[in-house]
Amino acid sequence: MSEISAGVSHLSDELIQTIYLVGADLRGWKDFLERLKSAIGASWAGVAFVDTKHFHVQVSAVAGWTDVTTRAYLDGYASQDPYVHAARAKGMWRTGVVALGNDLLPVEEFQATKFYKEFGRYHSYAGGGIAAVIVAENEVFGILSACPTGEKAFGQAEVALFRQLLPHLQTALYIRRELLTQSAIGRGALATLDRLSFPVFLCDAHSRVVHRNRAASATVSGEALCVERGFLSCANAHQTARLRRMIETIGRPDHQDEELSRQMWLPTASGRIRIVIASVTTADSFLPSSYLVAVCAIDPQYVPVNALDALRAAFALTKAEARVGVVLLRGESVEAIARALSVSQHTVRSHLKQLFAKTNTSRQAALIRVLLTALAA
Fold first, then answer.
1. Which tens digit of pLDDT belongs to each residue from 335-373?
2. What is the pTM of this model?
3. Scanning 32, 108, 231, 349, which has its CA 20 to 30 A from the CA of 4?
């Protein structure tokens, strides 16, 4: 099989050096996987993200499969993978767990599945190992590997190697996540958020708050929108659950092609506020949960001082276009904007078309972010 039993320490040292390249340069994954595949005598080795709640599988990188094979797995077979299902059913998706194929499913049962008969037998997927690197909520980031068809199954030497590598992989992924966050929001963007007069929270897909502006920092527990134990929350459990479902929808990797914004109303002591939830970053294919979501709490009557003049100066807007922009910032629909300005919906759509063109945006969420940034400058 492989010759790692007598040289686990030496091999792990070499692989560990490669792991830390991943934090700064994603091309390091390919090198690491090639080395791991060779070290354990695998037919292939890959890193994958699994959303265990919605059963979405994303293979981030793989050594030993062609692009065609990877695409065939993702498009037709990932949701059927018996080992992935067995790992979930047996509660093995826990940070730091290493499981061999036979721990999850006897090889005879695996080879009797439709998955093996149609896919596994033709792509050297006949057993192997799974290592859960990081598990958060319903997300798993793990390493998958397979031993060649007809070869001896992986054993304790491979398990020992995986266990030595896991803490270093966790650290490398943490470094990667931090770099992504800093790159996404940047010092200039943070300064802009701090100048806004209403609360803005930046969260990951699990509603974990990674940054909040000065207005948001002033919120306290029990308010309409606040932070509880590091997670964005509302005044009651029902509202909190609804908000977090929206954030999860915006932050999920398989929603990046949809209109990435949602909104809801929350009651306050003086009336109610509109909560606008929008995607603000492009995800990293190796850390799908690194999508950042902006959650803004906007008073329906909020209109920045000199907003009309500021928007006209920033984007060369007509007075009518600027008026539409200001009302849009309250989170109003086309119908509501038309009613507020006493114009037709056709006229509002015409002005919105000009706003998109002059701000170089194509989505409403992006347009709102650009307008707010201009007003905060």
1. 888 988 889 999 999 999 999 999 988 887 778 778 876
2. 0.54
3. 108
In this structure, how many other beta carbons lie within 10 angstroms of the beta carbon of residue 57? 18
Structure tokens at 157: 């030497």
The amino acid present at 229, given as its one-letter code, is R
CATH of range 303-377; options 3.30.460.20, 1.10.10.10, 1.20.58.760, 3.30.70.120: 1.10.10.10
Strands 209-212 and 98-100: unpaired
Structure tokens at 67: 């692009």
Query: Contact 212/201 with Cβ under 8 angstroms?
Result: yes
Helix (H) / strand (E) containing 58? strand 56-63
Nearest CA to 295 out of 339, 331, 269, 267 is that of: 331
Alpha helices in the chain (DSSP H): 8-24, 28-40, 67-72, 82-89, 101-104, 107-111, 114-118, 156-195, 214-217, 237-251, 307-315, 319-328, 334-341, 345-359, 364-376
**Token digits for 7?**
């040289």
